[in-house]
Amino acid sequence: MNNLFITATGQDKGKTAFTVGLLDILRDELDEVGYMKPIGQRYVVTQGQKVDEDVELIDSIFNFPDSIKDMSPVIMDRGFTRANLGYGNTQKLTRQLMDAYHRLRHSGRTMVLEGAGRCSVGDNFGLSNMKIAELMGAGVILIAEGGIGRTIDECMLDMAYMKQFDVDILGVVINKVYRKKLQEITEVTGGALQDRGLDLLGVIPYEPVLESPTLRSVVDEMDVEFLTSKNESYLKRTIGTVLVGAMKPHQALGYLQGGELLITGGDREDILVAVLCWSAMSHQDPGVEPVTGIVVTGGIRPHDSLIDVAEQLDVQMFLVSRDTYAAASAINDLTVKIKPEDDAKIASLSGLIESHVDIDRLKDYIRGG
C-alpha cells in the first residue's frame, strides 16, 4: 500500500481541510489508514507535549489509536532552525521522524502525510516536505488556490522543486474556485498545467460555509460570559454575517436576513429588542431565520428580561468586556479552522472532494496501481 503526501503552494490554501475530507473518505474505503504531520509549526501543548495544532484537530476528529507524539514528532518552535542547521542534526531528526513513522505504519497500512506549508519548507535543515515524502515513499498531492496566472506560476515553482526528489507527483487540486469559474479554471488553468506536465486531480468549488466561523469559534477566541444557558448544539451554528448594532432599530431590521451574529453595546436595548423580535418571528414563520447569536459589548449587562427572552428563543447571548469595535475586529480577524464538533462541515468537505476530485485515481495509487 502506497502513502500520500499533501502539500500546498502556500499558507491558507485549504491543505488541512482537504486532509480532513480525504481521511474521512479513505477511512470508509480502506481497511486501515494512518495520519502523520512529520514537521509541525504552530503547536499546542497536549498531554504535556508540544503537538502541531492540526494533528490535535485531526486526532480529535478521527480518534486514531496511535501516540499523538508519533503523529507530530518534530516541532519547529522558537530557535529550532538555528539549532538544527548542519548535517549531523539532519541525521538525528531523520531518525526521529522515521522511528515515529515506522511505529505508525504497522501492518503496512496507508499513511496520509500532511506537509508543513509549501514544498520547500524545512529545506534549511535538510528535511523539506519533499525530502520527507521521498523518505516515506509517498505520492505527492499539491493543493493550490483558484486562479489562472498566479496559480500556474506557483504550481510550476513548486513542481521545479519537487522534481529534485525521487517522488511520484500525482497532480494538483485547485481549491476554493467560485462555481461560476469552475469550467474556466478547469479548462484554462488545468489545461495549462497539463501542458506543463502537472496532472489536474480536481477543481473544488468555494463553499462559503466552510470559511464561516461558528459560535464556538467566537467563544474560543474571546473571553465571554454566557448570559443565556450554554448550549453545545447551538454553539455549532454557523455565522452568516456579522452585524454591528450601531444604528437605529428600524435600520437594523433592514439588514437582517437570518443567521447573523449581532454585536452591540449592552446599553443598546432598543437594538436588542428589535433583533429579538425578529428572532421571535421565526417561531411563527418558517421562512424567517433567527439570528445566530448576540455578543453584548462593553461589559454592560442588559436587563434580565431581555436575557430571558433570548433564552426562550434559543438565541445564545454572550457578554464581553471589549468595546463594540474591538469585538467586531477580533471576530473579523478569526482564522476559521475545522473543529471536531463541525460534523456538517466535515460531511460537506467529504462530499465536495468526492464530487470534484479523482478519488478513484488516488485509491488506485494507494493500492499500487
Give a brief rundown of this model.
Helices cover 43% and strands 20% of the residues. The protein has 369 residues and is an alpha/beta fold.
Work out the number of β strands: 15
CATH fold node name of the largest domain = Rossmann fold
Which CATH architecture of the largest domain? 3-Layer(aba) Sandwich
Give the helix level as a range of percent: 40-55%
- Strand-residue proportion: 15-25%
Query: What is the straight-line distance between the termini?
Result: 10 Å
Quickly count the helices: 16
| Rough outline | elongated
Taken together, the total number of domains comes to 2
Main beta sheet strand tally, sense and closure? 6 strands, parallel
- The CATH class of the largest domain, by name, is Alpha Beta
The class by helix and strand makeup works out as: alpha/beta
**What is the overall pLDDT average?**
91
Major beta sheet, strand line-up:
2-7-1-8-9-10
Poorly predicted runs are none
CATH superfamily of the largest domain: P-loop containing nucleotide triphosphate hydrolases
* Rg value: 23 Å
Structural account:
The chain is of the alpha/beta class. It has two domains: 3-210 and 338-366, 3-Layer(aba) Sandwich (Rossmann fold); 213-332, Udp-n-acetylmuramoylalanyl-d-glutamate--2,6- Diaminopimelate Ligase, Chain: A, domain 1 (3-Layer(aba) Sandwich). The chain is 43% helix and 20% strand. The chain contains 16 helices and 15 strands. It has a six-stranded parallel beta sheet, sandwiched between helices. It has a five-stranded mixed beta sheet with strand order 11-15-14-13-12, with helices on both faces. A two-stranded parallel sheet has the order 3-6.
